[in-house]
Amino acid sequence: MKYPLLITVTLLAVGLFLAGSCTRAVVYIDQEPDTGEYITSHPVGNASHHLERIQRSVKRITSTSYYETYLFDPDSRIAPDDVARAHTLRPIAETVIQSHTTSSGTAIVIHNRDDLVGMVTARHVITSPDTLYEYRETGQPYLSSVTIKINQVNWLFDAPYVGTFEVLVTDDLADLAFIGARIDPTSLDESVREQFPVFPYPIGRPDRLRIGTFTYSFGYPRGYPMVTTAIVSQASRDRHHSFVTDGLFNPGFSGGAVVAINGGLPAFEWVGIARSTSASREWHLVPEEDEAREHLAQLPFTGDVFVKEVATIHYGITHVVSITKVREMLEQHAIYLLGKGYNVLPLIQERR
Q: What per-residue string of b and e applies to 59-86 under the rule 16 or more CB within 10 Å gives b?
């Protein structure tokens, strides 16, 4: 069945005889599902139902890491080996500071069985450094401080559900991860299968993406459910056919689903996971949050200040990990995940 795209073109009148008149020309562009070619224009017809199905399988996640920073006396001679051997650092630290960092992102449901929900996301959303050393001087073996992670809590949000998840598999180079959660059915207004539906469309062919291919991206930038459109601006950036779009990327979009349309509606195909954007980094001196809140802006600040890294996003550049790489990660760990109760074989065995 053909899906004609009706384009109305207004022809301007030329000459006094045609003054004030106009005509309409009709151009037909065919869109037919599953042609093997991804479309490069907005799809013909109403796509809202299909987009809603995809969005229900995309979930919001956060990860919070809690740290203790131990500051050492400037005259002390404490090296990393001393830190590793110490049962506790408090007796040898001059000051102890507690802090935390939180990252937000998006995860895509690919498994739902026996109240176990398995998802894929971007690795950097759910990982953080375990230990950070700060040396007194470059090339010197002695530390001025060490920061150690004491706890990490991962949260899955899907109102009315709020619960934790565990990190099961990571791929550091590809920036991918598989996470899992056991859902308590009594905490939901509907069944686990209905609340956490598996991604409803098949895996696509990123190697067939071209410059100008039209895509949709789904995620939770700043915690808001969002669907946005973009075109592929650079295809097949590596042997796994990762690519770049001109999508608007905000913090929280990492791990979001990117889909293309094979020929026409309803042939959506999952082609990648939004990973990152281009950004420049700056370092600011900031006070502790509680002190800053209580401080009068008209007065000079005399308390302790800390260095904080701030990223400035360059909008309109979104890096996408191809679904080919996602499938490769799942293949490598399929047996391990099966032992944990997560069966990813149906996704792996889809047509290539």
A: bbbbbebebbbbbbeeeeebeeebbeee
225-273 tens-digit pLDDT: 999 999 999 998 888 899 999 988 788 999 999 999 999 889 999 999 9
Q: What is the pTM of this model?
A: 0.82
Does residue 221 have a cis bond before it (omega within 30 degrees)?
Answer: no
**3-state SS class at 38:** strand
- Cβ atoms 323, 204 nearer than 8 A: yes
For residue 326, the one-letter residue type is: V
- Rounded distance, CA 352 to CA 349, Å? 8
Q: What is the pLDDT of residues 74-133, one digit of tens each?
A: 888 899 998 888 888 998 899 999 999 999 999 999 999 999 999 999 999 999 999 999
Classify domain 5-348 by CATH number. Answer: 2.40.10.120
Radius of gyration of the chain (CA): 26
Residue range 17-33: average pLDDT?
44
Contact call for residues 32 and 264 (beta carbons, < 8 A): yes
Instruction: Yes or no: say if 96 and 70 are a contact pair by the CB < 8 Å rule.
Output: yes
Q: Which two tokens stand for residue 68?
A: 């203790």
Q: How far apart are CA 126 and CA 142, in angstroms?
A: 31
Report residue 187: phi and psi, to 5°: -90, 0
Of 215 and 2, more confident: 215
Q: How far is CA 218 from CA 134, 212, 238, in A?
A: 39, 19, 23
Give all strands (DSSP E) within the chain, no chain letters: 5-11, 23-29, 58-71, 95-113, 116-122, 131-135, 143-158, 161-164, 166-171, 176-182, 214-219, 226-234, 243-245, 257-261, 268-287, 305-322
First to last CA, the chain: 25
13 band by pLDDT with thresholds 50, 70 and 90: very low
Sequence ranges of the domains in the chain: 5-348
